[in-house]
Amino acid sequence: MSAMNQTLRVVHPRARREVVPSGLLGMVIFVGTEVMFFAGLISAFTISKAGAPRSAWNLPAGQLLPVASTAVNTAALFVSGALLWIAGRQYRARSSAATQTLVAATCFGSLFVMLQGREWVGLIGHGVTLRSSALGAFFYVIVGTHAVHAVAALAGLGVAWWRLRAGRLSDGFFLGAQTFWYFVVLIWPVIYARVYF
Amino acid sequence: MRECISDRRVISITAGLLTAAPVSALACPVCALVGTSNNTWAYQAMSAMLTLLPLAMVGSIVWWLTRLAARADAERARPRAGLKTGPSMNVKGFEAEPR
User: How many whole angstroms separate alpha carbon A105 and alpha carbon A178?
Assistant: First the structure.
Protein backbone atom coordinates (compact mmCIF):
# COMPACT_ATOMS: atom_id res chain seq x y z
CA MET A 1 0.00 0.00 0.00
CA SER A 2 2.76 2.39 0.89
CA ALA A 3 4.54 1.57 -2.36
CA MET A 4 1.30 2.32 -4.23
CA ASN A 5 0.97 5.66 -2.47
CA GLN A 6 4.47 6.54 -3.51
CA THR A 7 3.70 5.65 -7.11
CA LEU A 8 0.52 7.75 -7.21
CA ARG A 9 2.09 10.79 -5.61
CA VAL A 10 1.76 13.64 -8.07
CA VAL A 11 4.26 16.44 -8.14
CA HIS A 12 2.28 19.56 -8.94
CA PRO A 13 4.13 21.91 -11.26
CA ARG A 14 4.31 25.55 -10.21
CA ALA A 15 1.00 27.11 -11.12
CA ARG A 16 1.23 29.37 -14.17
CA ARG A 17 0.07 32.89 -13.63
CA GLU A 18 -1.06 35.55 -16.06
CA VAL A 19 0.29 38.88 -14.88
CA VAL A 20 -1.03 40.66 -17.96
CA PRO A 21 -3.79 39.57 -20.38
CA SER A 22 -2.28 37.89 -23.45
CA GLY A 23 -4.33 40.12 -25.76
CA LEU A 24 -2.88 43.24 -24.17
CA LEU A 25 0.72 41.95 -24.31
CA GLY A 26 0.29 40.99 -27.97
CA MET A 27 -1.09 44.45 -28.75
CA VAL A 28 1.77 46.17 -26.90
CA ILE A 29 4.34 44.24 -28.98
CA PHE A 30 2.41 45.02 -32.18
CA VAL A 31 2.24 48.71 -31.28
CA GLY A 32 6.02 48.62 -30.73
CA THR A 33 6.55 47.42 -34.30
CA GLU A 34 4.15 50.09 -35.58
CA VAL A 35 6.05 52.79 -33.69
CA MET A 36 9.21 51.69 -35.51
CA PHE A 37 7.34 51.74 -38.82
CA PHE A 38 6.32 55.36 -38.27
CA ALA A 39 9.79 56.19 -36.97
CA GLY A 40 11.21 54.96 -40.30
CA LEU A 41 8.76 57.11 -42.28
CA ILE A 42 9.43 60.20 -40.18
CA SER A 43 13.18 59.58 -40.42
CA ALA A 44 13.02 59.43 -44.23
CA PHE A 45 10.89 62.59 -44.28
CA THR A 46 13.25 64.50 -41.97
CA ILE A 47 16.41 63.60 -43.91
CA SER A 48 14.81 64.35 -47.28
CA LYS A 49 13.44 67.68 -46.05
CA ALA A 50 16.79 68.67 -44.55
CA GLY A 51 18.60 67.80 -47.79
CA ALA A 52 16.20 69.46 -50.20
CA PRO A 53 16.53 73.12 -51.20
CA ARG A 54 13.89 75.25 -49.45
CA SER A 55 12.40 76.34 -52.75
CA ALA A 56 11.94 72.73 -53.87
CA TRP A 57 10.19 71.61 -50.67
CA ASN A 58 6.65 72.81 -51.30
CA LEU A 59 3.34 71.83 -52.78
CA PRO A 60 2.37 72.63 -56.39
CA ALA A 61 0.73 75.96 -57.28
CA GLY A 62 1.73 77.55 -53.98
CA GLN A 63 -0.63 75.36 -51.97
CA LEU A 64 -0.08 75.07 -48.22
CA LEU A 65 -0.93 72.20 -45.93
CA PRO A 66 -4.11 72.95 -43.90
CA VAL A 67 -2.44 73.56 -40.53
CA ALA A 68 -5.35 75.36 -38.83
CA SER A 69 -8.14 72.96 -39.81
CA THR A 70 -5.93 70.02 -38.91
CA ALA A 71 -5.55 71.52 -35.43
CA VAL A 72 -9.33 71.20 -35.05
CA ASN A 73 -9.13 67.55 -36.21
CA THR A 74 -6.33 66.99 -33.70
CA ALA A 75 -8.54 68.36 -30.92
CA ALA A 76 -11.29 65.89 -31.91
CA LEU A 77 -8.75 63.07 -31.73
CA PHE A 78 -7.58 64.13 -28.27
CA VAL A 79 -11.18 64.35 -27.03
CA SER A 80 -11.70 60.82 -28.33
CA GLY A 81 -8.61 59.60 -26.44
CA ALA A 82 -9.77 61.29 -23.23
CA LEU A 83 -13.26 59.78 -23.57
CA LEU A 84 -11.78 56.33 -24.07
CA TRP A 85 -9.72 56.79 -20.92
CA ILE A 86 -12.92 57.67 -19.01
CA ALA A 87 -14.68 54.67 -20.60
CA GLY A 88 -11.84 52.47 -19.34
CA ARG A 89 -12.30 53.72 -15.79
CA GLN A 90 -16.08 53.19 -16.02
CA TYR A 91 -15.53 49.69 -17.42
CA ARG A 92 -13.26 48.76 -14.50
CA ALA A 93 -15.82 50.19 -12.07
CA ARG A 94 -18.48 48.06 -13.86
CA SER A 95 -20.52 51.15 -14.62
CA SER A 96 -23.17 50.90 -17.31
CA ALA A 97 -22.17 54.38 -18.53
CA ALA A 98 -19.06 52.81 -20.13
CA THR A 99 -21.12 51.85 -23.19
CA GLN A 100 -22.20 55.45 -23.92
CA THR A 101 -18.72 56.85 -23.27
CA LEU A 102 -17.23 54.25 -25.61
CA VAL A 103 -19.70 55.27 -28.32
CA ALA A 104 -18.80 58.94 -27.81
CA ALA A 105 -15.06 58.12 -28.08
CA THR A 106 -15.65 56.19 -31.30
CA CYS A 107 -17.76 59.07 -32.72
CA PHE A 108 -15.02 61.64 -32.05
CA GLY A 109 -12.45 59.28 -33.58
CA SER A 110 -14.65 58.85 -36.65
CA LEU A 111 -15.03 62.64 -36.84
CA PHE A 112 -11.23 62.97 -36.98
CA VAL A 113 -11.00 60.47 -39.87
CA MET A 114 -13.86 62.16 -41.77
CA LEU A 115 -12.39 65.66 -41.37
CA GLN A 116 -9.02 64.37 -42.55
CA GLY A 117 -10.74 62.82 -45.56
CA ARG A 118 -12.39 66.15 -46.36
CA GLU A 119 -9.00 67.86 -46.27
CA TRP A 120 -7.58 65.27 -48.63
CA VAL A 121 -10.42 65.84 -51.08
CA GLY A 122 -9.65 69.57 -51.01
CA LEU A 123 -5.92 69.03 -51.56
CA ILE A 124 -6.47 66.58 -54.42
CA GLY A 125 -8.85 69.11 -55.96
CA HIS A 126 -6.01 71.65 -55.93
CA GLY A 127 -3.68 69.26 -57.73
CA VAL A 128 -1.75 67.97 -54.73
CA THR A 129 -1.17 64.28 -55.42
CA LEU A 130 1.34 61.57 -54.59
CA ARG A 131 3.33 62.43 -57.71
CA SER A 132 3.03 66.21 -57.67
CA SER A 133 6.00 66.80 -55.35
CA ALA A 134 8.20 65.10 -52.76
CA LEU A 135 6.29 66.85 -49.95
CA GLY A 136 2.98 65.69 -51.41
CA ALA A 137 4.25 62.12 -51.64
CA PHE A 138 5.46 62.10 -48.04
CA PHE A 139 2.25 63.79 -46.86
CA TYR A 140 -0.05 61.21 -48.41
CA VAL A 141 2.07 58.23 -47.38
CA ILE A 142 2.55 59.25 -43.74
CA VAL A 143 -0.88 60.76 -43.07
CA GLY A 144 -2.59 58.05 -45.13
CA THR A 145 -0.86 55.29 -43.18
CA HIS A 146 -1.99 56.93 -39.95
CA ALA A 147 -5.55 57.11 -41.29
CA VAL A 148 -5.48 53.37 -42.10
CA HIS A 149 -4.40 52.68 -38.51
CA ALA A 150 -7.14 54.98 -37.21
CA VAL A 151 -9.81 53.13 -39.21
CA ALA A 152 -8.53 49.75 -37.97
CA ALA A 153 -8.50 51.00 -34.37
CA LEU A 154 -12.04 52.38 -34.74
CA ALA A 155 -13.18 48.97 -35.99
CA GLY A 156 -11.64 47.48 -32.84
CA LEU A 157 -13.48 50.00 -30.66
CA GLY A 158 -16.71 49.19 -32.52
CA VAL A 159 -16.28 45.47 -31.81
CA ALA A 160 -15.50 46.28 -28.16
CA TRP A 161 -18.68 48.34 -27.93
CA TRP A 162 -20.73 45.54 -29.51
CA ARG A 163 -19.33 42.95 -27.09
CA LEU A 164 -19.78 45.26 -24.11
CA ARG A 165 -23.42 45.73 -25.05
CA ALA A 166 -23.87 41.99 -25.34
CA GLY A 167 -22.07 41.41 -22.03
CA ARG A 168 -19.32 39.38 -23.72
CA LEU A 169 -16.40 41.82 -23.60
CA SER A 170 -13.20 40.39 -22.12
CA ASP A 171 -10.68 42.53 -20.28
CA GLY A 172 -7.94 41.48 -22.74
CA PHE A 173 -9.88 42.60 -25.80
CA PHE A 174 -10.90 45.92 -24.30
CA LEU A 175 -7.37 46.71 -23.12
CA GLY A 176 -5.99 45.72 -26.54
CA ALA A 177 -8.44 47.97 -28.40
CA GLN A 178 -7.77 50.78 -25.92
CA THR A 179 -3.98 50.45 -26.36
CA PHE A 180 -4.23 50.56 -30.15
CA TRP A 181 -6.40 53.68 -30.06
CA TYR A 182 -4.00 55.39 -27.61
CA PHE A 183 -1.20 54.62 -30.08
CA VAL A 184 -3.19 56.27 -32.90
CA VAL A 185 -3.88 59.31 -30.69
CA LEU A 186 -0.34 59.72 -29.36
CA ILE A 187 1.56 59.20 -32.63
CA TRP A 188 -0.54 61.87 -34.36
CA PRO A 189 0.99 64.98 -32.65
CA VAL A 190 4.44 63.76 -33.75
CA ILE A 191 3.25 63.43 -37.35
CA TYR A 192 1.41 66.75 -37.21
CA ALA A 193 4.43 68.61 -35.82
CA ARG A 194 6.89 67.06 -38.31
CA VAL A 195 4.87 67.04 -41.53
CA TYR A 196 2.65 70.12 -41.29
CA PHE A 197 5.25 72.63 -40.04
CA MET B 1 46.30 30.04 -54.93
CA ARG B 2 45.27 31.01 -58.44
CA GLU B 3 41.80 31.97 -57.23
CA CYS B 4 43.36 34.02 -54.48
CA ILE B 5 45.39 36.08 -56.95
CA SER B 6 42.31 36.56 -59.10
CA ASP B 7 40.36 37.88 -56.11
CA ARG B 8 43.13 40.27 -55.26
CA ARG B 9 43.08 41.61 -58.80
CA VAL B 10 39.33 42.13 -58.67
CA ILE B 11 39.65 43.93 -55.37
CA SER B 12 42.53 46.13 -56.63
CA ILE B 13 40.72 47.05 -59.83
CA THR B 14 37.50 47.85 -57.95
CA ALA B 15 39.34 49.91 -55.38
CA GLY B 16 41.23 51.74 -58.16
CA LEU B 17 38.02 52.53 -60.02
CA LEU B 18 36.25 53.75 -56.89
CA THR B 19 39.25 55.90 -55.98
CA ALA B 20 39.32 57.38 -59.47
CA ALA B 21 35.55 57.97 -59.56
CA PRO B 22 34.24 58.19 -55.99
CA VAL B 23 30.77 59.35 -57.08
CA SER B 24 30.05 55.84 -58.37
CA ALA B 25 30.37 54.54 -54.83
CA LEU B 26 27.30 56.49 -53.72
CA ALA B 27 24.57 53.90 -53.99
CA CYS B 28 22.14 55.94 -51.88
CA PRO B 29 20.54 58.82 -53.81
CA VAL B 30 20.08 60.87 -50.65
CA CYS B 31 23.73 60.34 -49.69
CA ALA B 32 24.79 62.48 -52.67
CA LEU B 33 23.50 65.44 -50.68
CA VAL B 34 26.07 64.94 -47.94
CA GLY B 35 28.37 67.93 -47.83
CA THR B 36 26.26 69.92 -50.27
CA SER B 37 23.41 70.58 -47.88
CA ASN B 38 22.85 71.09 -44.19
CA ASN B 39 21.38 67.66 -43.43
CA THR B 40 24.17 66.16 -41.35
CA TRP B 41 22.19 66.96 -38.20
CA ALA B 42 19.21 65.08 -39.67
CA TYR B 43 21.31 61.95 -40.27
CA GLN B 44 22.71 62.08 -36.77
CA ALA B 45 19.39 62.81 -35.06
CA MET B 46 17.49 60.14 -36.99
CA SER B 47 20.26 57.55 -36.45
CA ALA B 48 20.09 58.25 -32.73
CA MET B 49 16.28 58.01 -32.76
CA LEU B 50 16.19 54.74 -34.72
CA THR B 51 18.85 53.25 -32.44
CA LEU B 52 17.49 54.36 -29.09
CA LEU B 53 13.73 54.06 -29.71
CA PRO B 54 13.57 50.22 -29.98
CA LEU B 55 15.92 49.84 -27.01
CA ALA B 56 13.75 52.17 -24.94
CA MET B 57 10.55 50.35 -25.95
CA VAL B 58 11.91 46.85 -25.23
CA GLY B 59 13.36 48.10 -21.94
CA SER B 60 10.04 49.67 -20.97
CA ILE B 61 8.08 46.48 -21.74
CA VAL B 62 10.52 44.33 -19.74
CA TRP B 63 10.39 46.79 -16.81
CA TRP B 64 6.57 46.87 -16.94
CA LEU B 65 6.26 43.06 -16.98
CA THR B 66 8.78 42.69 -14.15
CA ARG B 67 6.81 45.19 -12.08
CA LEU B 68 3.52 43.39 -12.74
CA ALA B 69 5.07 40.01 -11.87
CA ALA B 70 6.54 41.40 -8.63
CA ARG B 71 3.16 42.87 -7.71
CA ALA B 72 1.42 39.54 -8.42
CA ASP B 73 4.01 37.72 -6.26
CA ALA B 74 3.49 40.19 -3.42
CA GLU B 75 -0.29 39.75 -3.58
CA ARG B 76 0.06 35.98 -3.56
CA ALA B 77 2.40 36.04 -0.57
CA ARG B 78 0.11 38.35 1.44
CA PRO B 79 -2.16 36.36 3.84
CA ARG B 80 -5.80 36.96 3.10
CA ALA B 81 -7.68 38.30 6.11
CA GLY B 82 -10.81 36.41 7.11
CA LEU B 83 -9.99 33.48 4.86
CA LYS B 84 -11.50 30.28 6.21
CA THR B 85 -9.78 27.01 5.54
CA GLY B 86 -11.28 23.63 5.02
CA PRO B 87 -14.48 22.58 3.32
CA SER B 88 -16.46 25.68 4.37
CA MET B 89 -14.13 28.08 2.50
CA ASN B 90 -16.07 30.39 0.23
CA VAL B 91 -14.05 30.03 -2.97
CA LYS B 92 -16.65 31.83 -5.04
CA GLY B 93 -16.01 35.04 -3.13
CA PHE B 94 -12.50 35.26 -4.57
CA GLU B 95 -13.54 34.95 -8.17
CA ALA B 96 -14.07 37.92 -10.41
CA GLU B 97 -17.66 38.93 -10.69
CA PRO B 98 -19.28 38.02 -14.00
CA ARG B 99 -19.99 41.00 -16.24
Answer: 11
